Amino acid sequence: MKSIPASKAKPRLAALAEASVRGKAAAAIRNNTVINRIGSKSRWVGFIYRLFVYLILIDLAFVFLYPFIYMTTTALKQPADLMDFTIKWIPTSLAWENFYYGMKGLQFWTHFNNSALIAVASVVGQVLSCSFIAYGFARIKFPGREVLFVLCMFTMIIPPQTIIVPLFMQYKTMGWLDSVLPLVIPSFFGNGLRGALFIFIFRQLFRGLPWELEDAARVDGCGSFRVYWKIIMPLTPPAIVVTTLLSLVWHWNDFFEPSIYLTSEEKFTLPMMLPRLYQSLDTLTGSTFEVFSLPVVMAATFVSLLPMLLVYLFLQRYFIQGVERSGLVE
Amino acid sequence: MRGRRLSLERKKMMAGYVYIAPWAIGFALFMLYPLVYSIWLSFHEVANVGNFELKSVGWDNFNKAFVLDTKFIPLFISVIQDALINTPLILVFSLFISILLNHNIRGRAFFRAAFFLPVLIGSGLAMQQLLYAGVGKDTMVNGIGVPDEVFLYMGPTFSQIVFDMLSRLTVIFWKTGVQILLFLAGLQGISVSLYESARCDGATEWEMFWKITLPLMTPIILLNLVYTCVDSFTDINNRMMVYIKDTAFTNIEMGYASSMGWIYFLFIFLLLVLVFVSTRRLVVYTGEK
User: Fold this and answer.
1) Inter-chain touch B12–A141, beta carbons under 8 Å
2) Which of A87, A102, B51, B103 has its CA 20 to 30 A from that of A304?
């Protein structure tokens, strides 16, 4: 405002003085000029500000996308391109055979099936059990509810290492070792990977739902299970999407528990095959230089993440809306 | 009449327990029993691996951790240091990004999706393959657009420090996906009318951030703080975690591993209690809850 030259300010001031006499119509003019002045100033500031916002966002988005860009471009390179330091991003020719060797080295379909079984079963288990448990915590009053809920949240901070030894021995006596049971069954009991977090998410959403729906159903003679299944669950897609995606991704990438409970190689999950790739590629392609197998390893890494990418692309819109609507942050 | 009503209420209460039952069973089987067993184990030593014969050793395992083992304490300190450095960085960075993303900008959907993508890689084996291939090293430097020439002027030692710092930041930033998402959801929840009325009173953007956005975001900041803490302490790649796992399954010192696990767990617990107690007055809750 200070930068307005005196010659320009004067007529405006005069106009203002005149306007104050004329009453209503003048007020409109005054408002108009004030708005114009602010507008012209903030247009410039706004433009520069916006420019900065875009620059920072594009810059950081690049940092965040870098692993994927690197992975895809390297996966398509030939050994010659890899050695040529003038080629950074775009390979001279696309080496699709890297994907073939990568998938072969991973024994893709066997281990994809293992991973998919564990991940999908855990997701189904967690969505069903966590929503069921959360309904109890959110909508039914009973003595000891708060204490139990605190206890439930408390399980989130237990490091897996603290209980891994007893769990291992427990599963050994139950005969569950080297099967998917230790990885899947806890999910059906509201445990599994961060089960408590999902209970929390569902509870937050359930608490925000209106009671009238439930009351009306009860008056009509609905039992609490039918209320949960027929009335509450259909209202929870946001929480279901959030839980599904996070649970799927975490179970898919988890290697700590599978690497302890699974011992025979044909039962390994897909990511567990990645560290063995350098060795298995040596026998597969005959080359002994680690550098040359890098594109194949990147192709394999890409393939092992591809299912998650596809699921995310499909669920992405609902997922972000879901986080906002589930009342997670209230 | 009264008796019937009571029984109805009791029936409803019982329904509550039915809903909690799966969790209670799971908790008892997969949490409580192993926890108690691991306390017991931490006072014992495996005398014979074959038939898992245990020998009571009293406080020896704890003594070993704090006095005899030269690796445990330095590892512990380095893990705490990492968490102390990473957590504020993650929080400030994710809040910053989410505020930028909350603007009405073009390609918002794209940016939001992009910032969540590293979560899909997680910190599992796929990420380790990428880091092994040298992905983290020059990302931040290239991404932020620092030209190579700058490093030539800085001299080898100093440029190495900057280089390391930036590549470390990159790996930290990749972990912020969930936090950005939570902050964004929180920012969406702040009513626009607050900003409008502040603007009418002549508040600048800067003032509005400190007087409106930040106070209303404190519950989510607390949520993210706890999430980040838990995430970094229970991360599988955490060196402490790796050490405990190796002690248990490579060296077959299960008793010692359990006692270290317990020390670690108690530390996390105390830390979170401290976080909750110390932030109690700082967190602003709106509404009548």
Assistant:
1) yes
2) A87
